[in-house]
Specification:
Helix 3 packs antiparallel against helix 4. The protein has one domain. It is rod-shaped and about 90 Å long. By secondary structure, it is mainly α. The protein has eight helices and no strands.
């Protein structure tokens, strides 16, 4: 479909095409932004833990802290918090500290996913409303015309543009939401593994 055709369909879709277009822009913006965030959050997440573990086993907590500071993945702040407790000789409450930091990181990753859920529900409804308004307009024109079939078919076709546009936006938002939800679950699983492994390593160190 060419740009001219897209503009033509947009102009024929009625007033509801404007909020649907805004929803599509928001969806794409969230999708691109979350792709960058999730890529950074999951990059070398288990590798970082292996490197930090090696420093801890070798009694080098400061090197572990420096490594965490240089990393941008979701595990880095959690491991930094835990390693800080070790360097200050405060082993109590390390699990709580790690779980608290993990909750903060997960909250950041969940950010804006609720917007996608809203768009998944709202976009088809906006499209349906646009179609209903288009049908009302079509029948109003029909009542003032000679009742030619071409007027009905043309009006119905134009009215359905809004529904099609709304469904397209909802489908894209649903794909993004499903993908990010799965990536989030993978990251959460990795963070849980790291937390448990860290505590096991800490027990070995303190023996």
């Amino acid at each position: 479909m060419s740009f001219e055709q897209s503009v033509f369909l947009f102009s024929k879709g009625g007033a509801m095409m404007y909020p649907i277009f805004i929803a599509s822009v928001i969806t794409l913006a969230i999708g691109v932004e979350r792709l960058v965030v999730y890529r950074r959050a999951s990059k070398d997440i288990m590798l970082l833990w292996q490197q930090v573990k090696q420093y801890l086993v070798n009694n080098q907590p400061q090197q572990a802290l420096a490594l965490c500071e240089a990393s941008t993945n979701a595990a880095a702040p959690i491991l930094y918090k835990a390693a800080s407790c070790i360097s200050k000789q405060r082993s109590e409450g390390i699990r709580d500290a790690m779980e608290g930091e993990a909750a903060a990181q997960i909250s950041k990753l969940r950010l804006r996913l609720s917007y996608l859920s809203t768009i998944i529900t709202l976009a088809p409804l906006l499209g349906l409303l646009g179609t209903v308004l288009g049908m009302i307009k079509t029948f109003n024109v029909l009542s003032l015309s000679s009742g030619q079939p071409s007027i009905i078919t043309g009006g119905v076709g134009e009215a359905l543009i809004a529904t099609a546009a709304g469904l397209c936006v909802a489908i894209i938002a649903a794909l993004f939401h499903s993908y990010f939800s799965e990536r989030l679950e993978d990251i959460i699983t990795s963070l849980e593994i790291i937390t448990n492994n860290f505590l096991e390593v800490l027990e070995l160190i303190n023996r």
